Amino acid sequence: MKKYEFWFVVGSQLLYGEDVLVTIEKRAEEMSRFLSEKLSFPVVYKITAKSNNEITNIIKEANYDDNCAGIITWCHTFSPSKMWINGLSLLQKPWCHFATQYNREIPDEEIDMDFMNLNQAAHGDREHGFIGARLRSARKVIAGYWQDDDVISKLEKWMKTAIGAAYSKEMKVMRFGDNMREVAVTEGDKVEAQKKLGWQVNTWAVGDLVKEMSMVTDAEIDSLMNEYTEAYDIATDNIDAIRYQAREEIAIEKMLKRENCHAFSNTFQDLYGMEQLPGLASQHLMSKGYGYGGEGDWKVAALTSIMKLMGENGNGASAFMEDYTYHLEKGNEYSLGAHMLEVCPSLSDGRPRIETHHLGIGMNEKDPARLVFEGKPGKGIVASLIDMGGRFRLIIQDVECVKPIMKMPNLPVARVMWRAMPDLTTGLECWIIAGGAHHTVLSMDVTAEQMTDWARMMDIECVHITKDTTPEKLEHDLLVSDLIWKLK
């Protein structure tokens, strides 16, 4: 994430004279310096564009600069929009239209026509906005004063989303074996995924992993065991099971790094040559920022990694999740989310415990070690990416996570409870109508707005289930969306 920057392109024209252009340039440099100090990524002032050629050339340059994660445009004065057509038609990077102005207030006594000619952002941004709408360009519009905290916060979130889009284009997913047999929703068109999302999804044999595991040394395992001890409470006497998970983790990470993969998937139906399904191994890898998908679900594996990158400090509270069962007490309805073993400890409310228990599914020869914890409370989202045949659909649902309302002492997995919006049963109806998968990414610091922006950047369909969604309205919206996307 450290290498990325955003280019600040300011619009104007030649009619106002050289002095005005010099003033605009000085102000643009001041604004970019201020924003760079406030934001996580540098804002680089590039040009005050006054012609078709200048705009086209800077956009061509942005397209092929790997450090440029997106452009931020602003029209200090009136910038005739026809000069933007050629450049914006070529744009391949995320675009934020920043509707702001240099001065916060109108200077009552000093305002004259010279001031009006120089400070025409209200004029210029509307012309600029029209051409974005006319070209039907994917763009984010952020309006407000450039020094205000809420505006800077919006820019920060958009930047992280844009970096998620850049990261997506470099995504490589390592599949250990194939999908769980007979499961529909984990399937998908890998060619379309690479074309649309940039994801390279390929398979490595489980035997390749077993061979890599055989070469892991005791010294490497000892070192990782020290990491486990620092981060987690050891709540089992079966140290051999923990060491076996360490062996699996080391081998998986070596293969991921060797192939420059950021996410991986496996299935409990294909453990040939392995004693245990990677549980603790997968959880600890997720805590480092890798994406994971159970049952061969490569879509959720990639999405987990991307959302982690978009989160706080580049590895926020985002985790592979599965809806398991419901608590349907009237007025007190909740979903219980978990997985057999693999939930990221970034969701933990407190210090996770390493435990060893029997896993009554799959081909495990020995009991796998895993992290057990309760999820933390807070507002969040669940996101699911599905293949609709001909297009991808991202489904987002607002949720409110709660501290689990019961102890569940005999459930030996990490568990998270949440209230889906607008309520459990209505939210469930909406989720099923939209085709949402049982696998999701649950995030407590990536917002629905960010994921909507990401979907726009990737040019895929997006469905957002909120407190105001009804099944009837959603069905109508999905029908309209289906018609629109079939025409695309």
Structure overview:
The chain is an alpha/beta fold. Helix content is 39%, strand content 22%. It has 15 helices and 19 strands. It has helices at residues 18-38, 52-63, 85-90, 113-118, 121-134, 149-169, 190-197, 206-214, 218-231, 239-258, 280-287, 298-310, 424-434, 448-458, 471-487; strands at residues 5-11, 43-49, 68-75, 95-99, 140-143, 172-176, 200-204, 233-234, 263-265, 291-293, 318-327, 334-338, 353-356, 369-372, 378-387, 392-402, 416-420, 439-443, 461-465. The strands form 4 sheets. Strands 11-12-17-16-15-18 form a 6-stranded antiparallel barrel. A 5-stranded parallel β-sheet has the order 2-1-3-4-5, sandwiched between helices. Helix 7 (190-197) links the parallel strand 6 (172-176) and strand 7. The chain is elongated.
